Amino acid sequence: xxxxxxxxxxxxxxxxxxxxxxxxxxxxxxxxxEKKISLYAxxxxxxxxxxxxxxxxxxxLTPRFKTTYFDLEFNGSKTLYKPGRDNPENNKLRxxxxxxxxxxxxxxxxxxVSQKHVYEQTFILNDSTRKIxxxxxxxxxxxAGFQCRRANAIIMDSIYVVAYYTDEITTTGGPESFxxxxxxxxxxxxxxxxxxxxxxxxxxxKISDTELQPPAKGRxxxxxxxxxxxxxxxxxxxxxxxxYQRQIxx
Length: 250
Fold this sequence. Notes:
12 strands, globular
């Protein structure tokens, strides 16, 4: 009986060792993110109660969600987030903020370079990477074939963030300027802003350093200066202004 128990234990340890050896930890590749914005929720928030009839009419002419795609290329400590494949269903919809953002991040050097189009102008933001105080939870979720753990945070003083990250991808980045978790962020939700990003596919592409270059075209500024510009441009926008500002600055 002791011999049998010893054999079973050896087999069990061998299985665990084989699983550990076969585990794949990615340090480079490409992730496709599907970004969805709830248009109905935005319509409800931006129209006054007395405009319910206008809201109902606009909903009849508008799909519930606007969906866009982005690619996140990564290699080690560098990432490049940029627009991905086109969604033809968006051709009849109005352009929303941050639909063509490009964000380069060097996590090792805590450097972020973002290209943002604000109506007729293009800005290049040179800043340090965003510092986020994450609270990691025990909740798990499978995203694009990876087991992900949930973390929560508050950014920009009031925006609640829910993220799901996997430690099977060792680069500690994510979509847009989100980072700082012990692995790659594959799912992201801003519930009160009605925006989500979820990975649809992770590709094991080889990404060279020459492919991960910061955007260069645009008027150079930083986040603080851009926010001041937006506040001045949108001071007469009423309840429309601040949601647009938040989406641009995210």
